[in-house]
């Protein structure tokens, strides 16, 4: 019974700090802020989640562009490949007399676009999913390393190993182009689309990670590796500024916004702050001017089949561009820049907050706006408390989310973010944390975001009576 109880206590301990790993649409975090480690005690739970996510993601790595079951049209496994996600086959006019195999469908049937309707077989080639997981893993492992935990050497090694595998090692590295990204399958389809550039939007997170390693003096991220990474970055940037990339830069909706996330981040990664400023200036003086209406709506996103999702999605990209601009030029004022009709990033958020996700049957996407709320509040303040109030109602356990860590100052007096007994593996910025217990709402929010865990099954496998499941 004693061993059973110990297993139960261990499980409860894990559950108490676990929250489902979520890929925020995009972000760039100032490495100087992370490395300064001047965090308030209210970010304690967010720090714990960063560490937990770093560990969760690391188990899945490393990732390589070469790990795909089908070769791109070039036949070179090092070339990135993805299939256009919203394109579906129409075999009605093919005239086949027998059932077509999947492979026959891909090259025989014409494909047609269905906006916002994801074709699940597009992930049979999952370079896009692998890159997302890779960018998340590098991002969180680098931040976890900077937090100065007992396991910092492991987090550092993870981040460097993942970067080397995807970008630098001869057997596994990616060719620096996206010629075969979001290929629209069908007869004669041999090349990708400029829309496929969106697949690598996570470059902004990777840039954050590398800057943390570089500026933090990582011994594992050597000068030679940094030099190789800069060379890869410059070659990819050259391709990104080719005609295909320029086509994507002209996309007036979120595609164009995310394009500039990549371009500016790459310039920063290559130590070209002037180029990064030019990139963000091009965005805020160009596409941005027509993206937000007087009332804060984003018309180009609201017209889509999933308007709630796309408003939050483009807003995340706008915020990322603003952060990149501020890093490249500390005097930047783009956070306050108005569009042609007087809209701002803040007004876009305020408008989006007035619309329920359920109004367009998008309840599953409700949380996508949460990081945006914290980001805007950290810049414009929350004097009336409306942003924190919104989050606490929508998600009472919000203080456990990693975005709380880098969206500061925000919610500084929120005790639910304080760790009552700081873990020896997390360095708290302040030592006078007040002792608080977790409330039921926080536990509920955390439990609802647990990934892939069946409490009953876990308890049973540990030899614990199922009656304990009711505790969760």
Task: List the keywords.
mainly alpha, 19 helices, two-stranded antiparallel ribbon, Alginate lyase domain-containing protein, single chain, Glycosyltransferase, disordered N terminus, Alginate_lyase_dom, 472 residues
Whole-Å distance between the termini? 21 Å
Helix content: 40-55%
Shape: globular
The CATH topology corresponds to Glycosyltransferase
The oligomeric state of the chains shown is single chain
Alpha-beta classification: mainly alpha
Q: In which order are the strands of the major sheet placed?
A: 1-2
**Would you identify the CATH H-level superfamily?**
Chondroitin AC/alginate lyase
- Stretches with pLDDT under 50, minimum 5 residues: 1-17, 422-448, 450-472
Main sheet specs: 2 strands, antiparallel
CATH class: Mainly Alpha
Mean pLDDT: 88
Alpha carbon gyration radius: 23 Å
The CATH architecture can be named as Alpha/alpha barrel
Strand content: under 5%
What's the helix-strand series? HHHEHEHHHHHHHHHHHHHHH
**If helices are DSSP runs of H or I spanning 4 or more residues, what is the number of helices?**
19
Number of domains: 1
The total strand number stands at 2
Task: Write up this protein.
The chain has 472 residues and is mainly alpha-helical. The protein has one domain (31-83, 124-406): Chondroitin AC/alginate lyase (Glycosyltransferase), CATH 1.50.10.100. The chain is built from 19 helices and two strands. It has helices at 2-17, 31-36, 44-58, 102-108, 127-146, 152-168, 203-215, 223-240, 243-249, 254-269, 273-285, 299-302, 307-328, 345-353, 370-380, 386-394, 403-406, 440-448, 455-461, and strands spanning 87-89, 111-113. Helix 7 runs parallel beside helix 10 and helix 11 crosses helix 13 (307-328).
């Amino acid at each position: 019974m004693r061993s059973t109880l110990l297993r139960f206590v261990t499980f409860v301990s894990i559950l108490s700090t676990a929250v489902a790993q979520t890929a925020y649409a995009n972000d760039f975090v100032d490495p100087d802020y992370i490395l300064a480690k001047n965090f308030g005690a209210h970010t304690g739970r967010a720090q714990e989640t960063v560490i937990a996510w770093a560990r969760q993601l690391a188990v899945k790595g490393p990732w390589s562009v070469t790990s795909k079951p089908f070769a791109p049209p070039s036949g070179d496994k090092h070339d990135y490949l993805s299939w256009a996600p919203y394109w579906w086959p129409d075999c009605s006019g093919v005239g086949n007399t027998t059932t077509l195999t999947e492979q026959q469908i891909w090259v025989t049937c014409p494909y047609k676009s269905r906006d916002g309707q994801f074709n699940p077989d597009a992930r049979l080639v999952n370079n896009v999913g692998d890159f997302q997981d890779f960018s998340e893993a590098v991002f969180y492992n680098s931040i976890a390393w900077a937090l100065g935990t007992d396991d910092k050497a492991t987090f550092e090694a993870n981040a460097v190993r993942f970067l080397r595998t995807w970008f630098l090692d001869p057997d596994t590295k990616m060719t620096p182009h996206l010629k075969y990204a979001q290929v629209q399958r069908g007869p004669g389809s041999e090349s990708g689309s400029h829309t496929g550039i969106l697949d690598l939007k996570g470059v902004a997170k990777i840039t954050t990670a590398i800057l943390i390693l570089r500026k933090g003096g990582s011994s594992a991220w050597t000068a030679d590796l940094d030099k190789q990474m800069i060379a890869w970055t410059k070659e990819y940037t050259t391709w990104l500024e080719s005609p295909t990339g320029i086509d994507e830069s002209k996309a007036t909706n979120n595609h164009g916004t995310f394009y500039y996330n990549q371009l500016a981040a790459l310039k920063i990664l290559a130590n070209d702050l002037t180029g990064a400023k030019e990139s963000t200036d091009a965005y805020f003086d160009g596409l941005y001017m027509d993206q937000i209406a007087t009332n804060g709506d984003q018309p180009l996103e609201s017209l889509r089949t999933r308007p709630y999702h796309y408003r939050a999605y483009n807003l995340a990209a706008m915020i990322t561009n603003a952060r990149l601009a501020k890093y490249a030029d500390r005097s930047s004022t783009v956070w306050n820049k108005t569009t042609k009709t007087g809209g701002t990033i803040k007004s876009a958020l305020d408008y989006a907050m007035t619309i329920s996700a359920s109004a367009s049957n998008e309840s599953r996407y409700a949380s996508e706006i949460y990081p945006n709320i914290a980001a805007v509040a950290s810049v414009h303040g929350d004097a009336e408390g409306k942003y924190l109030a919104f989050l606490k109602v929508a998600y009472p356990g919000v203080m456990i989310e990693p975005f709380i860590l880098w969206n500061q100052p925000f919610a500084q007096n929120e005790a639910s973010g304080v760790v009552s007994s700081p873990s020896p593996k997390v360095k708290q910025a302040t030592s006078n944390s007040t002792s608080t217990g977790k409330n039921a709402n926080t536990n509920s929010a955390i439990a609802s975001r647990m990934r892939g865990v069946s409490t009953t099954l876990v308890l049973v496998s540990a030899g614990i009576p199922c009656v304990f499941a009711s505790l969760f």
